[in-house]
Amino acid sequence: QVRLQESGPGLVKPSETLSLTCTVSGGSINGHYWSWIRQPPGKGLEWLGYIYYSGTTNYNPSLKSRVSISIVTSKSQFSLKLNSVTAADTAVYYCARDNCRGGSCHFDDWGQGALVTVSS
Amino acid sequence: QSVLTQPPSVSGAPGQRVTISCTGSRSNIGAGFDVHWYQQIPGTAPKLLIFGNSNRPSGVPDRFSGSKSGTAASLAITGLQAEDEADYYCQSFDTGLSGYVFGTGTTVTVL
Questions:
Q1: Parallel, antiparallel, or unpaired: how do β-strands B86-94 and B99-102 relate?
Q2: B52–A105: do the CB atoms touch at under 8 Å?
Q3: Mean pLDDT of A11-24
Q4: Which residues lie across from A100 on neighbouring strands?
Q5: I need a labelling partner for A57 at 20 to 30 A (CA). Which of A37, A80, A103, B71 fits?
Q6: Which chain A residue shows the shortest CA-CA distance from B37?
Q7: pLDDT tens digits, one per residue of A44-95
């Protein structure tokens, strides 16, 4: 079981870019898919996108034009950028490890979550 | 934009059995993609409860079981305990969205 830890600013101004980093420890970042998932206050979970350790990405179509995920394997870190944020992007942001078997993937390890508030 | 529908809430007395449904469509569950379940205690990160429709990770009590049929899946909790009070989410893959999708979430209350 790996440990994941989100880090980044907890407050972002409207129209600016939200940036978060997830640091992986206790296991290798190589050979796995890594996802970002968010949860607005009092609401459900929304998958934002994933990145493979090789750099291949896939994003939620509803956010595709605003979201970007990158990875630095040498630092065991992957990062999320969400631009042009609004109050609707206020949420707890989780990073997670994808466990994929036969084309089916689930999230078996999660970070503790980072609350990001969009406000001026 | 959840494409997997769950009942908002279910409740039961200690010791009873409750089930949570997860209804999808031919582009996700009905297309053959596995369903996974997560438990979320308020204020904490979700925890994997069931993977691959019916498999329990190490450490998850056998009171929790999952099944899938057609375009739907379900999670059953038998011998309900106070510690089972939490939010539960199903998750799968959707070909139309080409990505992962979560259910709308269900709050379990132990009476």
A1: antiparallel
A2: no
A3: 98
A4: A105
A5: B71
A6: A106
A7: 999 999 999 999 999 999 997 999 999 999 999 999 999 999 999 999 999 9
